[in-house]
Amino acid sequence: MLKLLVILTTSTCLFSTVNSGVPIGTGGPSIIYEGKDALLTCVVSENRSNNTVIWKKSGEILTAGMVRVSSDSRISVLHDENPRGRIGGSGGEVWVLLIKRLKSTDSGSYICELNSEPALRSIHILTVKQLPSSSTNSTVIETTDSSDLFLVPPPLDATDNRSFWRPSIPPQITHDFTECCERGNVTSECMGFCNVHNILDGTTGVEPEACEKDFPSIVRCMADGRNHVPCCVEKQIPDLCQDMCRGEYTPFTDHLKTRVSCVHHTLSGLQCILQGVQMIPSMPVAVSATNITENSVTIYWSPPEKLSHKVDHYIVNLTALHSFDEDDANDEDDVLRSPEKVIIRSVPNSQNTVTINYLNPLTMYAITVTAVNDFGSSLPSERLRIFTHNSDSAAEQQAGQTNKTNAPDLPDIRGCCEANGMTHRMCLEKMCDPQKADLARLPDFMVCAPWTNITFNCLANNIDHTPCCRSRGIPTACFPLCTGQVTALNFSLFKCLRFMPEFSSCLFQGYGVLAGPPSKIVTVAKTDNFVILDWNKPKTLPETISSYHVKFRHNIIEHYNPELVDWILSATETGDTVE
Fold this sequence. Notes:
- By secondary structure, the protein is α+β, with helices and mostly antiparallel strands.
């Protein structure tokens, strides 16, 4: 579903299959105002013989295939084949006749014809109305210049069974995903779209144009981690209108995929979602990988947050990638690539881990996990990428740590300051707390100057931190701070303010609470797009590390490639890979 009740002005059709055979399905509203664009949508459900689709009006051929026959330059055809990689026959081909800047003379019957034997036709009635003047009291539908869109609930026909959303009858099934929208930072003005029944009833409280930036999050939350595509296919929703069934949103552009009106499929899509959230589990979470070698990996995950008790089994998918981030690859390059190697494993619902062997060495893999039951499947989990290689740090981790030690307690610096006569509260809080020393500013130094000898003597804690200060690039003029031998605060020491973060790190190193540096940094692999780094954990207090910070810079060389912007840094702990 490409546009969530944000409906392009399109024409309706009177379905009319002249001869028996494969039907041609179409749909859309019928009344369009002058000056707007009309899109007449024709869906060919099957065209194995590759017959030509022709658009006609009053016996005149307007287009044949993608070729405009008419001399009217306002007319063109938008067309996409079935999306690559999809199962054929899941929705049909969409052929759209686009008429720009409508005139009253454009009203009439349009025919979409497949020149098969026998020919198949569908009739589309287009009515062009004059825009009401601003002086009239009639309601004018506001439109945007970029996409000519407006908001209406799906058409309610007398024959439709929609009691599950009619305002006069309490809904039998509800789907309120406001909490997900809040986590997705959807603006408060657009929260009305975070309830399916608000959408169906047209009571969202805001025009959709105002929520364009929020729609990706809204549609993702609406799908709720379930894959509703099989239901949408069963309801004969075209491929190009199935975005909403996958929790995706496509903004308007000049491409067919974003210009086709899917209004008549909106209700069917929402019915699939309402049904799916009651029966299909959401996606697995917290997918991680450990014990990565050149040929194997162990994958862990947590059960779905919703309907986990209904999971029958899990599908683990490993896909070998041709590049660092295949999402950014050009379609033109896909033709030259070899087929991706895909490994699929089925895991019982009682397990949340699997080890996969026989992987290719030095290869980037994308990992996803899907929850499956008799009613369908979740969407794949968030993609995790790994690189198969033998790591010295991983072998060290697997062998286990010896002589594990706990970090000692910090010395009582504040107590030292108080015992030596310091009473100023702000100076005690800022200058006598080693965890806040790097936050000190010039006004703090000046206010606390009378107690300088006490402050830095207590911070030093009877330790000479000069070797550390020298190795971290602190100037010689600042060494009195590192030794704690400061009798008075003079102007030259003010220049040391910008080195307070390094000074603070030296204090912690001297106190024995700072982890040691990583060792044995090596380049595991490098390509034109990324480099893999590996290092061993520090020998001192490695268990206290929460993250690694990696700094790098480009060398200025004659053949420097400005496209080399992605780096992968493989840390020692699982999940510590950084881009």
